[in-house]
Design brief:
The protein is built from five helices and two strands; from the N terminus they run αββαααα. With 105 residues, it is α+β, with helices and mostly antiparallel strands. The relative contact order is 0.08.
């Protein structure tokens, strides 16, 4: 059972750290809640071969999509800084460049 304070936290909270002051004046941090660490420690459920392959491809595609979005946003902001309505003028160029970069790396 989780402490009451952790039950009231928003689902977006990933970590809670308590900073304590020692008698000599130094500060130490004590992790109270770390969702990332707890989820990484949980064992993954077993899967059959077909689903394992599908999950691997799906995860790879999702990571590629995130990379593409990151590249596109950087290009979008750059185009917008360079010229008036630059994002609209360079939309297709930026989209294809981001897709190509995401596929490469």
């Amino acid at each position: 059972m989780e402490p009451l304070i952790l039950q009231k936290l928003d689902k977006k909270v990933l970590r809670v750290t308590l900073v304590k002051r020692e008698a000599d004046g130094t500060r130490i941090s004590v992790p109270v809640y770390d969702e990332i660490a707890t989820t990484l420690l949980e064992p993954r459920k077993k899967q059959t071969g077909v689903f394992k392959f599908a999950e691997k491809k799906t995860r790879r595609g999702a990571r590629r999509g995130l990379r593409m979005i990151d590249y596109y946003l950087a290009l979008h902001e750059r185009s917008n800084r360079k010229k008036k309505n630059g994002w609209a003028k360079d939309y297709f160029k930026n989209t294809f460049k981001a897709a190509r970069k995401a596929a490469e790396g």
